[in-house]
Design brief:
Radius of gyration: 21 Å
Number of helices: 3
Number of strands: 0
Distance between the termini: 73 Å
Length: 119
């Protein structure tokens, strides 16, 4: 496999990841509109945040280094994309879990107050 073929393959993988990220965003948007309650909608939003953001960032990083003349700015862009992806992969599920836990605790407290009032 020559270097030109390898760069073409990396470019193709980068474009595929960007397209896959767009697909995740569309599926997440449909999920937010169609799913029945808060918890399932939050799951769809988290999938959109992780899949719809992380995959295109990795794809952009691959496209940046797949150019024939790799300069420091393209390496910087690739490193920035990978770093951003890692931050998103850590913070999106954590934030989603915290939001879901807060909603669950609020719902249980509301049920407890309503049952103590005799309703």
């Amino acid at each position: 496999m020559s270097s030109v073929d390898f760069l073409l393959l990396v470019e193709f993988i980068g474009l595929a990841l960007i397209s896959l990220g767009a697909f995740f965003e569309i599926v997440a948007a449909i999920g937010v509109l169609r799913l029945p309650n808060f918890y399932t909608r939050l799951h769809a939003v988290t999938i959109g945040a992780v899949g719809g953001t992380a995959l295109p960032l990795i794809g952009v990083g691959l496209l940046a280094v797949s150019r024939h003349s790799v300069d420091p700015s393209s390496v910087y862009l690739a490193i920035l994309c990978i770093t951003s992806t890692l931050l998103i992969l850590v913070t999106a599920p954590t934030g989603s879990h915290a939001l879901m836990r807060a909603a669950y605790i609020h719902e249980k407290r509301r049920e407890k107050v309503e049952s103590s009032r005799g309703r």
